[in-house]
Automatic annotation (TrEMBL):
The lineage of its organism: Bacteria, Pseudomonadati, Verrucomicrobiota, Opitutia, Puniceicoccales. Belongs to the class-I aminoacyl-tRNA synthetase family. The keyword Acetylation does not apply. One of its GO terms (biological process) is arginyl-tRNA aminoacylation. It is found in: Cytoplasm. This is Arginine--tRNA ligase. One of its GO terms (molecular function) is ATP binding. Keywords: Aminoacyl-tRNA synthetase, ATP-binding, Cytoplasm, Ligase, Nucleotide-binding, Protein biosynthesis. Monomer. HAMAP family: Arg_tRNA_synth. Residues 476-593 form the DALR anticodon binding domain. The gene is argS. It comes from Pelagicoccus enzymogenes.
Length: 593
């Protein structure tokens, strides 16, 4: 049964086998996709293109495959077959198979074990968040952090080895002014309490003074030159400043319970740039243009004339150079089979050029090129349609955003508590209120982020993301607690005794819910293929909908044990997938809310 976890894959292999034994050529592909629900669950579409290529009749091709498939005993227990239209083969899953699947892949643990085969041989470096030093983490930093972390969790769940690497911008020109101010105006106490705030204050102060005074400009420049020539004293200061900066960043990550394996920022690659210069020149990719070193891509519409500059005319390295070195390091040191970088859409050109350049460079030097994905996102807008800003006009800080979310969530939980008291139910304790507020608050921010197609802009609206209705975190969290509350009325031994007694699922709502639960695997695959977590969110929302149709139409707690047992089984499986899915989005579920 284990190989039926990934149904589409299993059916794909059966169709290929059947096609081969029906005498079709190797060029045949099964093309499995989901079927029109009126006709079945899955559909094999391969007969059409095959017939077109071979100038034969697609329906006959489909017929010959179906005849072979029908001889397969294993498949006969799984699905009914039919041919539709010009030659689509439909697979309609049998209720007994749905039930068998649900009992085999029971519990989040079994789901996890089965899913861990999907990406088992992959080593993926995920570069996300990656802020620049001496800047507070603000709303502009939210999407990369949340989307990147969810991608890590999804890949890990599917069995990949994931390396979370924070490519912080820690070697930029900002240090001249920052050091100038740090040496003169440091507020040690504020640095301890709010490291990023203090560093940002100093950087801004340095910039302001430089704008007013030529002498400050000169001194700042000197600081920068000293740092870039790795003068020991400057390096010491740089380390201190970066230490504080990383401490500050981690304080924000802590609020989201996000932890990186590495902080290999731009500075880490500064001594590898010589190798990049040398290799790109030697393999004939790099050329000198107007004093700088660049790579053109003649086959590309824009990059044939728009250069990828990797060494400035003054001889210095830039963002492209350190990124080229980064690609090499990730391929060689981490042996990455795949590299994912999550940033905002404005860096699309940079990463497209980086990919093209690295691909050619690796090919020319006999290295294998890992799969590369630049995962990009659009902008978060305020409700006024403009980029979200705080009252001072600066971008909203992440720590303030989270604090506000938790505060608003707490208000909601307290309102629900009052409703409970009015209904004579036990309210949540103070401790439970605080825990629920944290989960709902941070979960809502995460879900608002993840449920949007990442490439679009979206409007950040408190009322919407904290609503108990619609495709939101509170709605899904509430759905999960409602299922949990059903089980609270049972002893564990009672449930165990019932488990073996389940009769065959049969009502339309039971079957629809079962089908939806099985759909989890396909959605998981699609989500990691496209690196678009909103697909998983949409699915979870639909799952909750299928559950509520089932629950409204089919009484769970009935006197007949066999019916009660199978309906409780469906409740449990729904909860397993809801909890697993929310977990992949970084949202834990609650017992009560
Ligand atoms: N520090 C960059 C920024 O704030 C993002 C870095 C992304 N990663 C990379 N390897 N370039 O825009």
């Amino acid at each position: 049964m284990q190989d039926w976890f990934d149904l589409a894959k299993k059916i794909d292999s059966l169709v290929l086998e059947a096609a081969a034994s029906a005498g079709l050529e190797d060029s045949f592909t099964a093309d499995i996709r989901s079927a029109d629900p009126r006709f079945g669950d899955l559909q094999a579409n391969g007969a059409l293109p095959y017939a077109k290529r071979n100038k034969s009749n697609p329906r006959q091709i489909a017929q010959s495959i179906v005849e072979k498939l029908q001889a397969n005993q294993e498949l006969a227990e799984v699905a009914e077959l039919s041919i539709a239209g010009p030659g689509f083969i439909n697979f309609s899953l049998k209720p007994s198979f749905l039930q068998k699947w649900l009992t085999t892949f029971s519990g989040s643990e079994q789901l996890g074990k089965a899913a861990a085969h999907l990406q088992a041989d992959e080593t993926v470096v995920v570069d996300y968040s990656s802020p620049n030093t001496a800047k507070q983490m603000h709303i502009g930093h939210l999407r990369s952090l949340i989307i990147g972390e969810s991608i890590c969790k999804l890949l890990e769940f599917c069995g990949a080895k994931v390396i979370r690497d924070n490519h912080i911008g820690d070697w930029g020109t900002a240090y001249g002014r920052l050091f100038y101010a740090y040496k003169r105006f440091l507020d040690e106490e504020n640095l301890q309490a709010n490291p990023l705030g203090e560093l940002e204050r100093l950087y801004k102060l340095g910039s302001k003074l430089a704008a007013e005074d030529e002498a400050v400009v000169a001194e700042s420049r000197e600081e920068l030159v000293k740092l870039q020539s790795e003068d020991p004293e400057s390096m010491k200061l740089w380390e201190t400043v970066n230490g504080h900066s990383i401490d500050g960043i981690k304080q924000v990550y802590e609020l989201f319970d996000i932890h990186f394996d590495h902080y290999l920022g731009e500075s880490f690659y500064r001594n590898m740039v010589e190798q990049v210069y040398k290799e790109l020149e030697e393999c004939g990719l790099g050329e000198k243009s107007e004093g700088a070193w660049v790579v053109f891509h003649p086959e590309h519409k824009r990059f044939a004339t728009q250069p990828f500059m990797y060494r400035k005319s003054d001889g210095a390295s830039n963002y492209a150079t350190t990124d080229l070195a980064t690609m090499l390091y990730r391929a060689e040191h981490f042996k990455a089979s795949s590299i994912i970088i999550e940033t905002d859409f404005r860096q699309k050109d940079h990463f497209e050029q980086l990919e093209l350049t690295t691909q050619k460079w690796f090919e020319k030097t006999g290295r294998s090129f890992p799969k590369f994905s630049h995962v990009f996102h659009g902008t978060i807008m305020g409700e006024n349609g403009k980029a979200m800003a705080s009252r001072s006009g600066d971008p909203v800080l992440l720590k303030d955003l989270i604090a506000e979310a938790i505060e608003r969530a707490e208000k909601l939980v307290r309102e629900k508590n009052e409703e409970k008291v009015a209904k004579g139910q036990a309210p949540l304790s103070e401790e439970e209120v605080a825990a629920a507020a944290k989960v709902i608050g941070t979960g809502s921010i995460r879900y608002a982020e993840l449920s949007q197609n990442r490439t679009s802009d979206y409007v950040f609206a408190w009322d919407k993301l904290l609503s108990f209705e619609g495709n939101t975190a509170p709605y899904l969290l509430y759905a999960a607690t409602r299922i949990k509350s059903i089980f609270r009325n049972f002893e564990a031994s009672e449930l165990e005794a019932l488990a073996g007694k389940a009769s065959q699922i049969e009502t339309p709502e039971e079957l629809a819910l079962a089908r939806k639960i099985l759909g989890f695997v396909g959605v998981l695959q699609q989500t990691i293929e496209t690196l678009r977590p909103h697909l998983l969110c949409t699915y979870l929302f639909e799952l909750a909908g299928a559950y509520s149709s089932f629950y409204n139409a089919n009484k769970v707690i009935v006197s007949e044990e066999a019916i009660k047992a199978r309906r409780l089984m469906l409740c449990q499986r729904t909860l397993d997938v809801l909890e697993t899915g929310l977990g992949l989005l970084g949202i834990p579920t609650l017992e009560r809310m």
